[in-house]
Amino acid sequence: MLQIKNLNYKIKQQIILNNITLTFPDNKITCIIGPNGCGKSTLLAHISSLLKSSEKISLDGIYIEKIPARTYARKVAILSQRQEFSIDEFLVSDIVLMGRYPHKKRFQDYSTADIRIADKMMLNTGIKHLSGKKIKTLSGGERQRVFIAKAMAQEPDILLLDEPTNHLDVKYKLALMRELKKFGKTVIIVLHDLSLAARCCDNSIVMYDGTIAAAGKPTKILTPEFLEKIFEVPFYTAKQNDNYFLYY
Amino acid sequence: MHIRIKFFILFIFLTFSIVISLGFGSVNIPSSLVLKEILTFLQTGHLHSATHETILLSIRLPRTLFAVISGAGLAMVGLAMQTITRNSLADPYILGVSSGASAGAVCAIILGWFSSLGQLNVSTGAFLGAALSTALVIVLVGRSSSPIKLILIGMGMSAFFSALTMMVIYSARHEAQVRSAMFWLLGSLSAIQWLDLISAAPVTIFLGIFLWFFRHDFDLLLLGAEEAGLLGLSVKQLQLLVITAASLCVAVLVTKAGLIGFIGLISPHLARILVGPLHSRLIIFSSLTGSIILLWGDVLSRSIFRPEEVPIGILTACIGAPLFIWIICKRYGD
Predict the structure, then answer these.
(1) Residue A145 lies in a domain
(2) B220 — contact with chain A (CB < 8 Å)?
(3) B231–A104 C-beta distance less than 8 A
(4) Is A89 part of any domain?
(5) How many domains does chain A have?
(6) What would the pLDDT profile of B280-325 be if each residue is shown by its tens digit?
(7) CA 20 to 30 Å from A16, out of A32, B144, B267, B291?
(8) ipTM entry
(9) Is residue A71 less than 8 Å (CB to CB) from chain B?
(10) Cβ within 8 Å, pair A80-B232
């Protein structure tokens, strides 16, 4: 179980995260929503261990900075928003296979099991047909799916996704959410699409100005009145076939 | 074309080049004669003519083998530097190893440092200069793993040691000293003997094995330092290890042959065109292309103004620069 206790973070004098305390239930999809600059990505960066958090975050009772990087990479994977120009010439399958790096024996090649897992993740994310293509020939949405496949190939207990639905069309957005559910692990996902959050996540966290404004079941807390306060625009809801929709 | 076939073709071409190139030089020996002498040597352990024995075995063979080794070494170091700085313009000298070595060498040639070591004075000066500049870069970069900082510190270091080199050259009293300093700065394999291979060969082979161990880690590095770190790679540690091993190799090669430019820059690019971005292949193909280019560069250096020699650094730049521009136009063409 992932637990955060009294996490604070500031850059110079500006407070980015203000006394965050959270528990993420195992094997559930938790979305983080909130306006731009409220600290969502910073929170994810702390959980991913990119930003140091001195004894504020623990995984199964162990402070995360005590876990060696390689071991941690087997437990937690992140899909970041930044991608480098230097990988343009790599094939899709090369990149997805890199997700197996933390599981690989040092100095050795990737095993056939690693290759099989990478293949399976490409199949699950719908990019199997692209596996022999160069990264530079892909569209934004295809690239995004490559990196999602890579993160899944890490076979982590916790998958962190920072706006994974960027560049994805409606079909792949829904397919991704289905895939995440099937993945069956703890997923923490930053979403801007509130309707998607309400429909597909087990648990939701609303952040505002570096604090947790609300946390709980999406259909309970994502009410038009509450969201209007957070995002400063009016919201409407609709219900169809047990699905909860949000409009603005 | 399959990678194995490409490897086979390059390997055969290199072997063939080694044999053919032995014939070229201030005294030309026809290839048929070279082949015949090799066959005799394989059967009897001696050559037909004593002159050929001196020219081929004592002068050209060590030199040719050194060209093969240092071509491979410089190419691998270039590849490693391009990857750890994530900059396709990086070459083996980007962190200032070469200017450190030059400063040390000219101090030995012109100021007479290390003269108690006799003939080893220039190599000692060059090696110490290279070691000093590398150590300074490592200390100044500190704990940062930013490739930009690495390159910029390297540039600063280069500028400083180059200025020092020029100052020492300017202070020279005899024209002969300037000429011999310039000859060293431009690189030459003319003084290579069997003895030089004893240090150059193991160091280069060691570097090759070392880089091979980290082939997948290098691939990962191209995702960016942050991302590689989150996958469990210790970026800083790898950077330090590579800088140390690569600089050691360059220091040894430069010490023997002076500054040979462009091989380390273009060979990795050529290899990328041949086999793509995976380092398991790039390490091998960069070495092969580096060896071939340097080998033929050296043949030209001893043939075009026969019996005079042209410093090989001038030739590698003459061939390398247009080739480099061609590669860049090809890769970044629309």
Answers:
(1) no
(2) yes
(3) no
(4) no
(5) 1
(6) 999 999 999 999 999 999 999 988 888 888 888 888 888 888 888 8
(7) B144
(8) 0.89
(9) yes
(10) no
For residue A143, give how far its alpha carbon lies from the nearest alpha carbon of chain B (Å): 13
Q: B117 CB contacts (<8 Å, ≥6 apart)? A: B124
User: What pLDDT, in 10s, does the model give residues A142-171?
Assistant: 999 999 999 999 999 999 999 888 788 888
Identify from A74, A83, A98, A146 which residue to disrupt to test chain B contact, counting B C-beta atoms within 10 A and taking the largest count: A98
Enumerate domains of chain B plus CATH numbers. Answer: 3-81+92-331 (1.10.3470.10)
Residue A208 belongs to some domain of the structure: yes
Half-sphere exposure of A61 (CA within 13 A, CB side): 0
Q: Does any domain span residue A124?
A: no
What does the pLDDT read at residue B185?
Answer: 86
Q: Cβ separation of A73 and B232 shorter than 8 Å?
A: yes
For residue A167, what is the domain's CATH number? 3.40.50.300
* Residue A84: strand, helix, or coil: coil
CB contact A82 to B (< 8 Å): yes
User: Which residue in the set A68, A80, A86 is minimally distant from B86, CB to CB?
Assistant: A86
Range of the domain at A164: 2-84+156-247
